[in-house]
Design brief:
single chain; alpha/beta; seven-stranded mixed β-sheet; five-stranded mixed β-sheet; 12 strands; 15% strand; globular; binds pyridoxal-5'-phosphate; transferase; aminotransferase
């Protein structure tokens, strides 16, 4: 059994290589020649299959320990393809603090096409049970919620889902297979916005899906080709390259995140810190049990007398920007930036406030990151 860190670098063998090149080639070709009219060809057209994209698809299936992987042009392209496996009148239970774009896709778009959704706190098994209807087909959630970093047990939810014949679908963007492999805990489908940690450098938009069973692989594979939101070969290569350094980046990012969370906890201008790596965090125990690390994102509320806009405007090293998972640290205001798609009532219901700041920690020196936060806080007095 090869260690995970070795798998990241060596991945699957480069099978198509007469040159000795040590990385897989980028095949830009959209079409592939038939040797003769009746030939059964492995490749015919890039939407249906492309060797560069397939390398990444096999790699993510290997890392997530699944049956097959699929690469898409964005995380939302991956999510919309997965939800397309359902039929009119199907009902799906979703986590109460899923990514804003997912919330919009499901509640604005898929409801128009006959799906219905019930939103629950997926940490509460009784709430999930109470939401199950005769037409419920699946439970969908993010293990680590955004931006409050609440941890849902994939093990417990997928066991409950199995009892009721439901699929468990996990958006594993915030953790990556380095920190959790949901299929090994009982989930059926794993989704990534590879735009974040897997790409790792804020320079490629991509989505990935991994399925546990051949039947699900067949369904997702069919839709990937039928709907067509596939990942371009150059972008697939960038994600492949990002994955090689995933554990190195993640190790530094979560080490930095913990030090920053502890530092912010001690500030009188900060009223609360959310990071499941903190011993006093309510999600600490479950994070210890099911995650291999708490990840690189944390959030905190500024005290009521601190102007949150002024605070983020003072940051110099942290860029004020949405997204996460890059080598460079980012700060954002969920209320007006990432979660603006949610109606105010939904934002309040999921515990958000205008005082909340989300930090996506990068690989910089933690001393410089803390100094930047401190100089901004110092100007808030
Ligand atoms: C960013 C993100 C998405 C959407 O991915 P895109 O690549 O931006 O389409 C979905 N889920 C989570 C948790 C995300 O952070």
């Amino acid at each position: 059994m090869t260690d995970f860190n070795t798998k990241l670098v060596h991945g699957i063998p480069v099978g198509d290589n007469q040159t000795g090149a040590v990385v897989p080639p980028i095949y830009q070709s959209t079409t592939f020649a038939y040797p003769q009219a009746d030939a059964k060809v492995r490749w015919d057209y890039t939407r249906s299959g492309n060797p560069t994209r397939e390398y990444l698809e096999k790699e993510i299936a290997y890392l997530e320990d699944g049956d097959a992987g699929f690469a898409f042009s964005s995380g939302l392209a991956a999510i919309s393809t997965v939800f397309s496996i359902f039929d009119r009148d199907d009902h799906i239970i979703i986590g109460d603090s899923v990514y804003g774009g997912t919330y919009r896709l499901l509640n604005d778009y898929f409801t128009k096409h006959g799906l219905s959704f019930t939103t629950v706190d997926t940490r509460d098994l009784d709430a999930i049970k109470g939401a199950i209807q005769p037409n419920t087909r699946a439970i969908y959630f993010e293990t680590l919620s955004n931006p409050l970093l609440k941890v849902t047990s994939v093990k417990k939810v997928s066991a409950l889902a199995k009892e009721h014949g439901l699929l468990t679908i996990v958006d594993n963007t915030f953790l990556t297979p380095y920190l959790q492999q949901p299929l090994n805990l009982g989930a059926d489908i794993v989704i990534h916005s590879a735009t974040k940690y897997l790409g790792g450098h804020s320079d490629v938009l991509a989505g990935l899906v991994v399925t546990r069973t051949p039947a699900l692989s067949q369904q997702v594979g069919y839709l990937q080709n039928a709907l067509g939101p596939t990942l371009a070969p150059e972008a697939a290569n960038l994600v492949r390259r990002g994955i090689e350094t995933l554990s190195l980046r993640m190790d530094r990012e979560q080490q930095n995140a913990l030090a920053i969370a502890e530092h912010l906890e001690a500030s009188p201008l900060v009223s609360s810190v959310h990071y499941p790596g903190l011993k006093q965090d309510p999600n600490y125990q479950i994070a210890q049990e099911e995650l291999n690390g708490a990840g690189g994102v944390l959030s905190f509320e500024l005290a009521d007398n601190v102007d949150a806009d002024r605070f983020v405007n003072q940051l110099k090293l942290f860029t004020l920007a949405v997204s996460l998972g890059s080598v460079a640290s980012l700060a954002e205001l969920p209320w007006t930036m990432t979660h603006a798609e949610l109606p105010v009532s939904a934002r309040k219901a999921s515990g958000l406030s205008p005082q909340l700041i989300r930090l996506a920690i990068g690989v910089e020196s933690v001393r410089d990151l803390i100094e930047d936060l401190d100089q901004a806080l110092a100007q808030m007095g």
